[in-house]
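Standup notes
- HV: blocked on the assembly model, inputs below
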Amino acid sequence: MSTDVSVKRVFNFSAGPAALPLSVLQEIQRDMIALPGVGASILEISHRSSAFVEIIEDARNRLVNLLGIPDTHEVVFMQGGARLQNAMIPANFLTSKDETADYVVTGNWGKNSAAEVPFYGVLNKAFDGAEGSFTRLPEAADLQFSDNAGYIHFTSNETIHGLQFKQAPANGDVPLVCDASSDFLSRPVNISEYGMIYACAQKNAGTAGVTVCIISKELLERCGDRNPSYLDYAKVAAKDSMLNTPPTFSIYVTGLVCKWLQEEVGGLEAIEKMNSDKARLLYDVVDESGGFYVVHAANPEHRSVMNVVFKMATPELDRKFLDEAAAENLTTLGGHRSIGGIRASIYNAMPREGVEALAGFMKDFAAANG
Amino acid sequence: MSTDVSVKRVFNFSAGPAALPLSVLQEIQRDMIALPGVGASILEISHRSSAFVEIIEDARNRLVNLLGIPDTHEVVFMQGGARLQNAMIPANFLTSKDETADYVVTGNWGKNSAAEVPFYGVLNKAFDGAEGSFTRLPEAADLQFSDNAGYIHFTSNETIHGLQFKQAPANGDVPLVCDASSDFLSRPVNISEYGMIYACAQKNAGTAGVTVCIISKELLERCGDRNPSYLDYAKVAAKDSMLNTPPTFSIYVTGLVCKWLQEEVGGLEAIEKMNSDKARLLYDVVDESGGFYVVHAANPEHRSVMNVVFKMATPELDRKFLDEAAAENLTTLGGHRSIGGIRASIYNAMPREGVEALAGFMKDFAAANG
């Protein structure tokens, strides 16, 4: 079968769903009518078929290998996005009314996560960055943990405000639960330090429709029998994510993205270096612009490697920037509607040449309008 | 771009995920690298982009047109399969402890649906076919409805046991909630008679990852504010199914399947006739086999048009049947592990020639082994 890749493609800086590696798209396209040796499309095969069982096990094994996931943790594929996890986490991990859930809120996504807790238990905002318009991460002294926390929740990277933790906000051995939706698989991570890490796939790990949850067996024991089947992590984990029909195609794409990371990129240390280099290209232009571009994050240490968020002096300039960028095939650069400005999401699959093109455009734009 | 359709394809009788129309697979393949005029794949575009908003609105409009959905009802695209709906239905529609939920249980799927009710309220099994090994649907006199039912739930087609309602088991104006996962879009339906109809897409309406929910505004008003955001139908409906990132690709596929139904098949009356004709081909072979093939449904009136479930005198014969059928590219014909035997799922996308091939094989097999 031949695939035509001369189709015009833009540099897509979408915050998510976001760009995928071209080689992954090509493999999906090649096998869309029938998987090799199967005679039916990935969209048509039973989740109980040996062909699909091989696909989901392959995706799981590749995640285990890439992240070095230890035997103490299970990989569970869920639907419903991070949003459903936000409800399931307190529903499953708060076991009594005497426990609180400590949330470190550094942006909109953390705020949304915290908002689901009161349906199930007691919320303590250990830090609330809303008071500073989400321009900074907490210092150790800012964190007001409770004495009886069942877990600590934080968002490793906030896409809207462009803030990213380099180190988790821990408190002794209270289990850490991390929404890593927007920097999962962008760098190595020590899974042992976490009770749970979860990530919707549509940034770095595939396409929308599946959320990867890595959960410690210790936390799985807390699930009890308090929730309906699909809303109980232990019940879904016990069935190897096949309690019901899983999102077969999205899991297939996640497997292909992991294969790309392993075989074409060379693993998470390699992608981390590539991502840091890409981010530096853009932040350097900002820092050398003499104040023409202003980053949302107040402290350079807190800047996200995934989402470079900045603005210019006026909304009119931002608008002009977006229009002229789009004319050069640099698309989806608008900031989130809640804060405006510019947001360049440069996840794993954004090639360096896309970032170089944007950096060049930014220099020219600053020179012409500064 | 050229697509090669000479790839070997089998006749896939999977109960779900199930066969898709070849023309749908070809369109997905053609546009996988970049949607026309967009420059990025359907897997990569933001759900907030105008390109995707057009796709989700198109899918919704096609469903409205095909089914004649009135203004009194909303179309909501959810994740988590029918299994998550089973939890959300009592969570949203039981508003007080004085209400019961009446469940008409005619197979495994109805049993699973009923099992989630006690997490939220009082369950009344108005009929429980388990006592008769799910070989029949209830007569009117069998139905033990309660006086204070918040809603009645039933499963229009049970895939494992091959039983299908021709008419809903109603009780005055108590809202009817129907799990139509396995016969949705296979025939016309009067939506006005239902409080809610829901269907996971992977049988007749697309691929795994999206569940279509058609809900009356009257039922939506019952949701209150008792559930977290993603688990509250009213909150998701208020955001046009974009409370968070929806399963973009699966919704795109559902839209393409609806387009196929409209433009290539000619609507739901046309597909109903095609489906009846296909089912008759197989049931005729069974009825003319002199008892060699025995249908699970005791009453011919209850036989499913979607899943033809039967067995032979011994499990060894069933096994031989499956092996010899597979050798003729008639695949995935094994009955569900809970009852064994043979199951031919002949959803919308199974072409008549596949059913003719199976009917021919069945005749030959009976002649050789009868």
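- HV (later): unblocked. Chain B touches chain A through 69 residues (CB under 8 Å). DSSP finds ten helices and 14 strands in chain B.
- Next: hand off to the docking folks.
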